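Tutorial sheet, problem 5. The two components below are modelled jointly, 1159 residues in total.
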Amino acid sequence: MPTASKPRQLNLDELRRLNWLLGGAMALVSLWTVFFLDLEALGLVGVAGAVILATMVWPTIPQRVPPLVWELAVPAIIVTMAADFYFSPDTLPVLIRLAILLVLYRAVSYRRKREDLQLIVLSLFLVVVAGVLTVALGFAFLLLLFTACALGFLFVINLISASETGMAHTPQLETGWTRLGWGQFFARLRAVIDWRLLVFAGVLFATVVAMSGLLFLIIPRFELATGFFLDRYITRKSRTGFTETVRFGSVSELIRDQSVAMRVDLSDASGLRESPYWRLVVLDEYTPDGFKVSAQMKAQLLRSQRMTQTLRSRKPPLHPVGGTWTFYIEPGVSRFLPLPGSFANLRLRDLAPLQTTYTQNRGTQAPEGLLDGTRLVALRTEAMTMTAFQLDGVEFSGSIPDSAFARLLRVWNNGGEGQTDDRNYDARIMLKGPVGSANEAVLRRVVREITDGATLPADEFARRATAWLQGRHAYTLAAKLPAGAGKDDIVRWLDSNEPGFCEYFAASLAVLARAAGHPARVVAGFHGGVLNGFENYYMVRNSDAHAWVEIYDGKSAWMRADPTPGAVAAAAEAATQAARQEQDSSWSARVDSLRVLWYRRIVNFDARTQVQMIEQMKSFTTDSGTVLRARLDEFSKRLKAWLDRPWDAARTGRTAGLVAGIGALGWMVVRLGQWGWVRWQMWRRPREFDPVRRTAGKWLGRIAECGVRSAECRAVREDLRRLRYGRRETWPEPRGVFKRARQARKVARSRR
Amino acid sequence: MNAATTAISSPGLDWQGPGARSRRREFRWHTLLWALVFPPKRHRISLTVPGLFLMGLAVGIGTAAYNTASNILFITLSLLLACLLLSGLLSWFNFMGICWRMRPPGAWRAGHETLVTVEVENRKNWLPTYSLWFELATQPRHPPGPEKPEKEMRMRDILAAAEKHVTRGRIFLRERLEPRGATSLDWGVKPTRRGEAVIELGAVGSLFPFGFLRKNIGTALRHTVLVWPAQVEYQWKGAVAAHAGSSGQRTARAGTGDDLLALRKYEQGDSHRQIHWKASARLGQLMIRQFAAESHDGYVLRLDTPAASWTRPEQFELLCGFAGTLAEDLYAAGRLRGVSVNGGPLLETRRIRDLEALLDELARLQPVEKPGPGHAGPATTKNIITFAPEGARGVTAYADGQQTASA
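Model answer (structure tokens):
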């Protein structure tokens, strides 16, 4: 008793409309990823996005464009690209702009299967390049969105291809779908959509994501020594003040920026008892505009450059903090790596050209390098993407050991005799300050006020000078330099009562210390940060940018001195916070923790992490098995003990009652669920859903499985078919039929 | 091609495919996994051009990923591979529960387009099936032997010669097949030669879901069908033979003549004009007049095919077509009494089935060395139509020795 049901599916025009929608959406997602790139193409992206969106909504627009425009479009793109190549210094931005234009062209013109596939490839190019260059968390979301769109798009392409096989291609047929209204289309889409298929599609997509995650974890990793990277083909200007030259005011500009500059993942945060100073760059040379990295030190950095992934300290710290620290530095912060102080090992995520003032490859017994005390490590260029590196054996201390500097200074004070090192770093640069009689007179006067004419040790001088500075100057972010001819900016400020910010205080202390005969240098970096309450890592924001001073004690170490008012109090507060393990548990911290998860699990995933993960999984499985076995043993012992207890009538009755109660409860829950399901279906599909027909269908399947062809079986099957397909007026009594079906199946089973 | 969707009628044993009942086995995980690694017999998966491109893209991205150790590229590579796996998984779902069969075809006629119907059922409970195609082929069961080549044949020429008699076609499932639904697809084919032909459903394939993989399931579904001779144009010279028959004689068969043959009871649908009112009044129930059919003396076709006479194959094919066409026309006019082939017994043609049996025999007819003696009997001494070659190409039919038709 067959019945015919009209298939609920989209026709060819509706499929083409869906294809247009998905293709446009995919193109828009790919353009969205370009927004993460700091390219000079945002205007182009905006225009292209607007045009694609407009043609998505009004698909008849391309018909109104004269055919000549379409014919000239590709030559125009080629000419534009050639001109762009000629004028642009970088290759990759040109390619990206070309891809944007091609995506635009393909997305707004009517397409067949081949053009659809071209659109997918072009969009994929944009997505992958943007992802590689940014490594942003948003990329993960966009990649998933793109994958969903692309898979849906491919699916529809395939359906269209199957539907139009053998059909004639005429312009009228191919553009007929554009006359279909959105309202009509969405109404049809709504009528066609089956929630079960939607759920199935969702499950499949989740499976794809899970499968790709699994593949990502198990793909074997090995390192290749000679890699290329896309960011070589693009240059980027530093957004922060942490370059070789820090002008007055450049650090304080950052203080207004609340975005996270770097994240420090601590495997063991217990050793963090004070607010850390993250040293980025050491400024040893004074200029009237501010402090900067001297040419000699830059030359040393350049000479030391080599491709490496690890850097081992020649002398491990004496009092290291436990655990491994992983740093994730946002792009644009600096090419210098933030270091809290001394460390045992530094390990980069990838091989990279690394510059350092450390003396390397000399063995542990070799004398300390001349510039080891600066503790500078830098990349060759500023990274386009997030930079990750790890430190082991970090020492948190206010002083940096450097016995070589005293020797170097002696040599240069003696006229350079005995200076055999070809680097020729003139240590006296750390003693040079503002020149000129007016400047020197002011400095001499101030130093006399601070020391009362006595010769003070470096630490005492730093303490008194800090007190003097804080007594004369308040802290502000809007500093104003007093006027005065013949004097350097910092001397004028020093000699005034104007408030200032950290760079003024640090520079003032440095020039005062140098005027007093103590080698000093300005250090720029970050101070402080806050623990993320969700993923246990340190968030350092751009607003934590800071400058301070390191003064040489004359014998063996550089001591940190922070003259900025409030810095000491802030440090004490931060230390208290750290001691209390105070954490940031705000929503922004929660969102930020996702980014660290992305960095930890995806971006920073390497062969070592892979091995660690496998070992963790192995140990987890073993441990879980052990724990489970122990619990089962425990449970079996308890059960045995429980069973061994004497069984009297009351206990037996209680147990039987309990078992019966649980069984009845379970049965009721199942029945209630079934009842609810049936009611919900009857409410949802009052015309289509019929529990009697549904049950009859089930019984037909069960009877068919038995395969018995007895007379009773045939009769029951006939009645079941009538219930399943027949009109209600012809129905036999359903309960009786189902009862007979049950009996027939029972008989059939017994005969087997 | 025409497709009509209906619900499943009834499961049968002649169904083939993953969803056929006879192929259903107990589910085992290791069987499934092994099937994914080593596809079952006749299952073939190949890459399409977009699939090849995807693989190339995956290789390129993988190379770049290893070269740069960029995890973004690794995750893109993982996504591409996962999509490929998903493609295989969905393709497997698509074929799951699908079964098909060819509707047993009737006899074909050479030169006439006929339909081969493939019935498809989706026995899945809630997943539809999309974008299938069915590869069909037909060829003579005994293809003519290859002509002796003038020069040594290359492999391509040998393959082309083998394909010469094969007609291939592909029919598509354009719309999705609903769960527990069925449909039938038709393939129009025009056989060129009479004889036995083999119609074969070679494979069922699909590009579902993304067009990366082409999955083919080979089938062994074959049917043999008889191809009746083609209908041919001939010239009837009936006036020559008209004197031989006595037209207008009354026969004992019911028909539309003028003579009353009998009376019978009224049946629903009978014309009221045929009611015999007097008899109806006398008998008390409606009676209908039944008239006798006018009849003619029919012809007997005597078909002898000695190889010595029918030396040219084209002329012999024309003979078969001419005899079949003439027999059909005479039967339609009610003037075919019987047929005797190569001295065989006279086969009377009273029903359409007799005519079809004749056409079946004509489909298989081959020249014989020596025809047997005829058994036409005394009643067939007149109006016997025989056939003889006419020139190099033509065939002439003679009624009692006089030319009556030619083709």
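Marking note: The mean pLDDT of chain B is 81. Full credit if you identified this.
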